[in-house]
Amino acid sequence: MRFFLFSSADPAESEKGRITRLARVREAVFGAQDGLISTVALVSSVFGAATDNFLIIVAGLAGALGGMISMAAGSFLSSRAQRELYEKEIRDAEKKLEKDPQERINKLTSLYVEEGLNESDATSISTRLASDHQVFLNTLIEKELGLSPELPGSPIKDAVTMGTAFVGAAFVPIAPYFFLQGFSAFVTSIVAAGLALFFVGVGKSRITNRPAIRSGLEILFIGATAGNIGYALGTIVPNLLQ
Prior knowledge:
There is one protein chain. This protein is mainly alpha-helical. The protein is built from 9 helices and no strands. It has helices at 10-49, 53-99, 101-114, 119-129, 133-145, 155-174, 176-179, 182-208, 212-241.
């Protein structure tokens, strides 16, 4: 069964490629964002409880690797579920078309009328589209279901992108503890994570079309808050348990 649009000109193919790349960038941005925020909170908590660099590094690496697996698995399952849903809806649309083509023509006509075309023009367009099975099916999928006839991106590629971005970003707040000791390592970790979060926010603005500086500062604020809360919890909880 063919799920893809009929052949198109190079500009259309270029646009599809751009959208695919944006989807991959989105996975990378959100993976990096989560990797930074969760890890800076974790290592700050451990630092607040015990200033032993070895413990901080072990906890940070464990959190980074565990988070990588969790995020990659979540991305894979989410992408696969979306892909399977698309496949089901497209199969159902094709079955309806094969069962009663005229009813599908009438349905598309009514959709065009709802969009503002007069009934005569809507009927003419629907009838002409019905002369090509694949074009007609693709149009029904877009108009009736609100879906693209093309399947979403690869679940495996999405998972790899998400997991790699998460673990790569997670190393930023961990790295200072390899080279520095005590409060110097803590401050450097927070600053490095903050800068990384700001630039991730700027990158995110390209996807969300929000002001770059505002987006960067917003994520920076969230990360700083997470780090401070983590440090406070790491300081308070051990005292409560004593």
